# Entry
Amino acid sequence: MTPIMTRSDAVELVVAARLRRGLSWHEIAEQIGAAPVWTTAALLGQHPLSAEQAGRVCELLGLDGTVAESLQRQPSRGADPARMADPTIYRFTEALAVYGPALKELIHEEFGDGIMSAINFRVDVSRRPDPDGDRVVVTFDGKFLDYKW
# Structure
């Protein structure tokens, strides 16, 4: 019996096939019936796909069942330190370092003692035209979880 392909190997095959086939992350998301940010995160190794979704992705990208099998496995989520140094990703860290304490205060003021879930969570990215240069709009939409004692 051969081992299941690693997530990192499956991710590399997905990324290469997507680029070679000229498909956008949005097009893939549409084909599997999932949100673009979630789909992209899943195909980059952060979420498991259902058997149906993994099969459809592999069909779209011309990949075999060994990749589909890997895409269905429960991932080890987290941040690779090398990726955290990427300028785009680092700006999110910087923004949360500057605005995180204010967001925390405002969440507590509005909702009470608790946190925003990152499990029951949606995130969206969009473009907003602006005369000084287009704006990136990132929306975090997490369920409020109050602390219960």
Observations:
- The beta strands are 114-128, 135-146.
- The chain has two domains: 7-71, 81-146.
- The radius of gyration is 18 Å.
- The chain has seven helices and two strands.
